[in-house]
């Protein structure tokens, strides 16, 4: 077990290294000269050359990469080309909004997906399974931005029940206000996650119901619901850990569209603003940050899975 | 691929009502996209009707803010969306199959190298890269197809690699090798035909995700540029008129949903049909 964890950790290091090379290459390939953002109209050509030299842009690419990597390891992701604030600081400022939104969406999705998946799996091919399955199919096929627009139309415009934009009403500081703003974006994201989780839990329930322990419980006279919600659920919960780990990678990328539609002030909308303004350091910072989350999420999923399920010990 | 598998597949597809429905729907959508020119309205003609007329007999989906016929725009938009979906799928599948077969067939360091590269690419969230590249490059239809394909081939490569490794140990392949067949011939004549089932399944799922990616990209304003429309960019402009003309947002989204849903349903049916080991769902 310890060996497996060490091996997975060791695999992660070169992966992070190569991901950083790819990210660096993308900044370098980006059109536009980064020096230009420091240039003012009355600057002399010598001044521009000096800025280029100070930024290290006149050195060979691999030296530039190593310098960039060194800064990166010290937590320095550079400065925004637009407002000249540190990139890392801006990401950290926006993190709570995104983490709160995505965290609650994932939590709601899991809590709903467990009973739905179990019920669908246990009633395979009956009407209730077909309905749950249809919902899941729609969930993986619906463009979430469209769902968001429809919900805004119904709940914010027609019924005037909920706010459709931002995270706070100006001048109001209550948690209740933030929660009210979060209902629509959170429902949209939760629906997206729910579909994937339900399909996963449904198929693992179907698999579990063929196991011996289920037959034994039946033989002991337990009823279907007891078996389902007391025994099968334990085995079905295991793969969910993996799913949650994999959801980490979607944390930022998955939030881009939804945060943009609802003007939610998270990392996703920060990224969108950066893309519109060609603010490469911010874009790269967010890309690196979400790659890190994705890699660590997968790592955490593997390790947790190995801890919870000892059968996985040998497999790496 | 052998005859029994095809028959099994046909049976699986035509015995499932959702499968038939999905197939019919896709055929209708494709015919609509192909024969879009039969529509009496030019999709970019302004004031074809009064701006924001609600759907009626002459404008089935109503008209948009410029008075353009929305049904014609939806047909032409579908043409671009479906084209991007198919073209990216073909390209992604070709790359995936090439990488997967080479990796699985030769094994050794080639395999390790390709698989590590695949791990690296899969570790960078693809939608971010998609956004980034579409900002760098001019967002033409061709560029979008290439970018989406470059971000989508990894799943096919993984499945194809696994399948290649199992096929190359089968007896008929071993016989062929023993009879002196070279690597190229082996791959083309003996490995690839055996891979067709997994390729079809991977390709079907890829169309669904390509269409979804293109829609999201165009919705954010980085996809196909105006005046040409895709379903995603139609939603982008509809968003601004949601209070006065909600039907402008309804139709394109519904079309995306139905298209992606149909491909997902077909993909699942094909998967079950082509791999009888799998549980019937």
TrEMBL record, chain A:
Amino-acid biosynthesis found in the keyword field: no
SUPFAM superfamilies according to UniProt: MetI-like
Residue span, ABC transmembrane type-1 domain: 95-305
Compartment(s) where it occurs, according to its Swiss-Prot or TrEMBL record: Cell membrane
Transmembrane segments: 12-30, 101-122, 134-162, 182-200, 236-262, 282-308
This protein's UniProt keywords: Cell membrane, Membrane, Transmembrane, Transmembrane helix, Transport
Pfam families attached to this UniProt entry: BPD_transp_1, BPD_transp_1_N
Membrane topology: Multi-pass membrane protein
Protein family according to the UniProt entry: Belongs to the binding-protein-dependent transport system permease family.
Name of the featured protein: Peptide/nickel transport system permease protein
Lineage: Bacteria, Bacillati, Bacillota, Bacilli, Bacillales
TrEMBL record, chain B:
Residues passing through the membrane, by range: 20-41, 80-106, 118-137, 143-161, 182-201, 245-266
Similarity field: Belongs to the binding-protein-dependent transport system permease family.
Name of this protein: Peptide/nickel transport system permease protein
Highest taxon above the source species: Bacteria
Record membrane topology: Multi-pass membrane protein
Alphabetized Pfam families for the sequence: BPD_transp_1 (PF00528)
InterPro entries registered for this protein in UniProt: BP-dependent_transpt_permease, MetI-like, MetI-like_sf
Alphabetical list of PROSITE patterns matching this protein: ABC_TM1
Compartmental location: Cell membrane
Record keywords: Cell membrane, Membrane, Transmembrane, Transmembrane helix, Transport
Residues covered by the ABC transmembrane type-1 domain: 78-267
């Amino acid at each position: 077990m310890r060996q497996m964890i060490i091996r997975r950790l060791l695999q992660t290091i070169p992966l992070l290294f190569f991901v950083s090379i790819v990210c660096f290459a993308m900044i370098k390939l980006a059109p536009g000269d980064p020096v230009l953002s420091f240039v003012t109209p009355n600057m002399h050509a010598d001044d521009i050359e000096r800025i280029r030299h100070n930024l290290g842009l006149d050195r060979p690419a691999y030296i530039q990469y190593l310098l960039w990597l060194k800064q990166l390891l010290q937590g320095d992701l550079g400065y925004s080309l637009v407002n000249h604030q540190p990139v890392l600081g801006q990401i950290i400022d926006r993190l709570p909004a995104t983490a709160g939104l995505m965290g609650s969406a994932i939590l709601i999705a899991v809590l709903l997906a467990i009973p739905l998946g179990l019920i669908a799996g246990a009633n395979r091919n009956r009407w209730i399974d077909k309905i749950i399955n249809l919902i899941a199919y729609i969930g993986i096929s619906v463009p979430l931005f469209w769902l968001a627009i429809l919900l805004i139309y119904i709940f914010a415009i027609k019924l005037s029940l909920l706010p459709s934009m931002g995270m706070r009403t100006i001048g109001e500081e209550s948690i209740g206000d933030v929660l009210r703003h979060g209902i629509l974006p959170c429902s949209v994201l939760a629906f997206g996650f729910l579909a994937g989780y339900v399909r996963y839990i449904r198929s693992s329930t179907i698999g579990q119901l063929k196991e011996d322990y289920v037959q034994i419980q039946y033989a002991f006279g337990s009823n279907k619901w007891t078996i389902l919600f007391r025994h099968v659920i334990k085995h079905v919960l295991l793969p969910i850990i993996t799913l949650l780990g994999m959801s980490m990678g979607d944390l930022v990328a998955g939030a881009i569209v939804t945060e943009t539609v609802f003007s939610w002030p998270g990392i996703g909308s920060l990224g969108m603003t950066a893309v519109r303004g060609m603010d490469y350091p911010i874009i790269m910072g967010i890309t690196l940050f979400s790659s890190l989350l994705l890699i660590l999420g997968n790592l955490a999923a593997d390790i947790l899975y190995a801890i919870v399920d000892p059968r996985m010990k040998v497999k790496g | 691929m052998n005859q029994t598998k095809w028959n099994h597949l046909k049976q699986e597809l035509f015995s499932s009502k959702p499968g038939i429905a999905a197939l019919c729907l896709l055929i209708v959508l494709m015919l609509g996209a192909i024969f879009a020119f039969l529509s009496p309205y030019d999709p970019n003609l302004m004031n074809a009707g009064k701006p924001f007329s609600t759907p009626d007999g002459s404008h089935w989906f109503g008209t948009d803010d410029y008075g353009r016929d929305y049904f014609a725009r939806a047909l032409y938009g579908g043409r671009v969306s479906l084209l991007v979906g198919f073209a990216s799928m073909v390209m992604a599948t070709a790359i995936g199959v090439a990488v997967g077969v080479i990796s699985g067939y030769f094994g050794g360091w080639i395999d390790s190298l390709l698989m590590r590269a695949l791990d690296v690419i899969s570790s960078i969230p693809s939608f971010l890269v998609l956004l980034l590249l579409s900002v760098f490059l001019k967002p033409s239809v061709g560029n979008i197809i290439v970018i989406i394909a470059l971000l989508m081939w990894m799943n096919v490569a993984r499945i194809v690699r696994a399948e290649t490794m199992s096929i190359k140990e089968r007896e008929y392949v071993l016989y062929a090798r023993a009879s002196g067949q070279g690597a190229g011939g082996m791959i083309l004549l003996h490995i690839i035909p055996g891979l067709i089932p997994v390729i079809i399944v991977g390709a079907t799922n890829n169309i669904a995700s390509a269409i979804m990616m293109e829609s999201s990209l165009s919705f954010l304003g980085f996809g196909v540029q105006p005046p040409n429309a895709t379903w995603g960019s139609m939603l982008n402009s509809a968003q601004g008129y949601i209070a006065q003309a909600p039907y402008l947002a309804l139709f394109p989204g519904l079309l995306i949903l139905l298209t992606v849903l149909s491909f997902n349903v077909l993909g699942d049916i094909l998967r079950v049909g082509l791999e009888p080991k799998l549980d019937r769902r």
